[in-house]
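Please check this record.
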Amino acid sequence: MTQNFDFYERDPSFLEIKAAFLDAVESFHKERGFTNDLFSITNELEISIHPLKPGISSEEGSAFTQVNGQKVILLKENLPESRKLFTAWHELSHHLFEYLRDGEFKAYLDDLLYGHPDWSTNCEEELCFESAALLLMPNHSVDDVISETGFSPLAIFQLSEKTGASYSAAIRRIVRRKNIDSNSIVMKPDGWILDSFSYGESRGKYNIIPRFKVENDHPLLTTPFQPLEVEKFSAPIPFKGGQRSWKSKCMAAIDQDLRKVIAFFVKSYPDNNQDQLSLPLF
């Protein structure tokens, strides 16, 4: 059930707007059977989708309503499929932000941040990122994967395969859903870190800056990974610039088909994981 704001005593905070908006998005999606057919929703809401012309903008997508009332989504064409898919749900979320509850969410956010349009834009972007993740990877899908694999890199592989989401998007969705303090990375087998995500009170402020190569003697490179099986070991968190004093427990696994390693650095291994962390090879 959608959360209600207390209109008469006070305006909602940003966190209350966020919670109510995401609740409304989930209810909207549930009413449509949690469809993964984005076009069925855009057709229902009379939103047209067009390619973003090269050179017009550096953005991957945009959403707006024309003066004649026509709702539009523009998408950059030369994106990887998983990224284009997430961008499409993200831009749809901008329209939902104005459509659900007859625009109350946007009105309250604008009132809350009156006089600070840049803040309002950034906050709406955060809300639409969360909404896109929820639409692409609904709570029940995330919970089903975690129930089967536990909190581990295998959950990322499985959620990505199930929904079409990128590994980067799946990491953020599962970490937030489980609310586990962690430093996570997506890495090539040669040690090149492609992406990272730091989360939680104890680790969220310590970011692993991507786009560098881990040293050759790091356990992420010396561990003999087996396909789709989780390896556990203690290792320095690979902060850029050679800062390796913080050792942490690590769970890592390789997807040899896509040539990607997923690793979680955590304080302790989650106690609800499966005894045998592996996926069947078919």
User: Anything to note?
Assistant: Residues 149 and 185 are 18 Å apart (CA to CA). The domain at 139-266 is CATH 3.30.450.20 (Beta-Lactamase). The mean pLDDT is 90. DSSP finds nine helices and nine strands in the chain.
